[in-house]
Design a protein that fits this description.
single chain; alpha/beta; elongated
């Protein structure tokens, strides 16, 4: 019975329950390998819980079973685990397809159960071997310490020593090495210049011969942001008369410090006449420096090109990695850019300066929120902000959601009658609220199925509020809360989801049109004209 010595019956039972529950739907559809990873981690977590409960039973010296009964119980548990796993694997495709149907996606392929089981078991065995290696190291250190200190102190020292050694290996071999390689990959990508995006030649063009920022210092995302924009003739197809919108971008390599890049952004914006437009948008990009084209294109069309936008890059890494490794730097860059742009803007005559708005998506929304303090602007506020898919850590979002008006849901809250802050999503706009939306406006755009917004680490032991009561239309009714498992599902949803445009963390141009139109209160746009714009944006290809 080597199998019995390698596995614990209690661990297998709880682990299989966790595995089965992990196959139920969450916010985002998942393909086979991704689901296998979630299920493998859930299986390992449940196994650990079961092992702990078994140890606790013995530690409390509760009655134990005879060897014969224990052997029979192992066979019963093994059979029950097999039936449970097979039954839930059989239903897995149905559950995933129910989420796909909500989002207008095709059904998942039929080989998923085999792929899920193989990936989950392989990952579980790897994690189990790591755990057993940790236990062997613990016993080895405890045996050495027992010769010098009392047994319980030896156990504590051994536990601390094992954690320290494992963390040192994990940190050096995995975290630092992986991050170093990822950094190198994205650094090369950021420096690469696409041959179909040549440097501009116009005197006023950012990155051109007279620009304060060299084209090669714009970064990959900056060059795309500046090149792939609508021109006046494109906008005029929908609006009639139009101007060429002004865009300014300062790449990470354009200057050494956030303050220097912010000053450079201000000087370049003044050089190209950005403050002479009717609207000015200060953009905080995502971790890679990306600015969602749907976000900026839509507002440029709505305003007939009479708008300038400016962004400063703070990283070339994906947002999750940038948040872990460069959190303070992103906040510092956003703060420096705000201080320079807002500081100059507030000195301009009120009658002639543009209306100033902030914009950020995902990590950009988080850093944009952090870029100013209300005490800094209370005597001369800018006009508002559009924050899209704000991460669950966003302070203002958390406060507003927690203090929402009674009866409004977490996924579309109302706050103090909507006088300052309003929310919209894929289905509903920003007309909720009893109060008039004032001159200073904050708009949140968030899908009910966005895991970046609605991830909650407390879901490990408490049902999230957005799962209670009436749910958002794009959240499956088959989604239920399970301790630990739901938290693991949401964590994976943040990084490996397959949501189509308009769901999850993928925001469509139509979402942005609705949000900007309501936030800016742009006149002259009726329902028919907005529908025409939406069709145009869905087909528009700058290439």
């Amino acid at each position: 019975m080597r199998f019995a010595h390698f596995f614990t019956s209690g661990g297998l039972l709880v682990g299989t329950i966790f595995f089965a529950l992990s196959l139920t739907p969450s916010l985002i559809p998942r393909e086979g390998v991704t689901q296998g990873v979630i299920s493998g981690v859930a299986l390992a977590a449940g196994y650990g819980v079961g092992v702990f409960l078994t140890w606790l039973w013995r530690f409390l010296e509760l009655p134990s079973l005879s060897d014969r009964t224990r052997t029979r119980l192992r066979w019963v548990v093994s059979g029950a685990c097999l039936l449970l796993a097979v039954g839930f694997l059989w239903r897995a495709a149905h559950w995933q397809n129910s989420v796909r149907a909500l989002m207008g996606m095709e059904e998942a392929p039929g080989v998923r159960p085999i792929v899920i089981a193989m990936v989950a078991v392989l990952l579980f065995l790897v994690l189990l071997l790591i755990a057993k290696a940790f236990r062997c190291l613990f016993y080895f250190l405890a045996a050495r310490f027992q010769h010098r200190v009392p047994r319980r102190i030896a156990g504590l020292l051994a536990l601390c020593g094992a954690f320290a050694l494992f963390w040192a290996v994990f940190n050096k071999l995995l975290i630092k090495e992986v991050l170093h390689r990822v950094d190198g990959i994205y650094q090369r990508l950021d420096a690469s210049e696409a041959p179909d995006l040549p440097a501009p030649t116009g005197a006023l063009a950012p990155g051109g011969p007279d620009s304060l920022v060299r084209w090669q210092d714009m970064g990959h995302q900056g060059r795309r942001y500046l090149s792939l924009r609508p021109r006046a003739k494109d906008i005029a197809e929908v609006t009639g008369d139009a101007k060429d919108p002004v865009r300014v971008y300062v790449g990470l390599n354009a200057a050494d410090t956030p303050a220097q890049r912010a000053k450079l952004a201000l000087d370049e914006l003044k050089r190209v006449g950005g403050f002479e437009r009717s609207y000015l948008i200060l953009i905080t990009p995502t971790g890679t420096g990306w600015v969602d084209p749907g976000a900026i294109n839509s507002v440029e069309y709505l305003l007939g090109g009479d708008v300038a936008s400016v962004a400063a890059q703070y990283s070339y890494l994906p947002s999750p990695i940038a948040l872990m490794t460069q959190d303070a730097y992103g906040r510092e860059t956003a703060r420096a850019a705000f201080e320079e742009i807002y500081g100059y803007w507030r000195k301009l005559p009120h009658s002639s300066r543009p209306k100033l708005y902030l914009f950020g998506l995902s990590l950009g929304a988080l850093n944009s929120d952090r870029s100013f303090d209300f005490y800094d602007i209370i005597d001369d506020p800018f006009h508002g902000a559009l924050w899209v898919g704000p991460p669950f850590r966003s302070d203002t979002w958390r406060m507003v959601t927690a203090e929402r008006d009674k009866g409004s849901p977490v996924w579309l809250p109302e706050f103090r009658g909507g006088a300052v802050v309003r929310f919209g999503n894929h289905f509903e706009g920003y007309n909720r609220g009893d109060a008039n939306w004032g001159h200073f406006r904050i708009a949140y755009l968030q899908h009910g199925s966005d895991p970046i917004v609605f991830f909650d680490p407390n879901a490990a032991y408490r049902e999230p509020a957005w799962m209670k009561g009436t749910r958002a239309r794009d959240v499956s009714p088959d989604l239920h809360w399970y301790p630990i498992v739901t938290m693991l599902q949401l964590a994976m949803d943040m990084h490996a989801g397959l949501a189509p445009m308009g769901y999850g963390h993928s925001y469509a141009p139509q979402d942005y049109v609705r949000a900007w139109h309501q936030l800016l209160a742009v006149p002259g746009w009726d329902k028919a004209k907005i529908e025409q714009l939406n069709k145009h944006l869905s087909k528009w290809n700058p290439r």
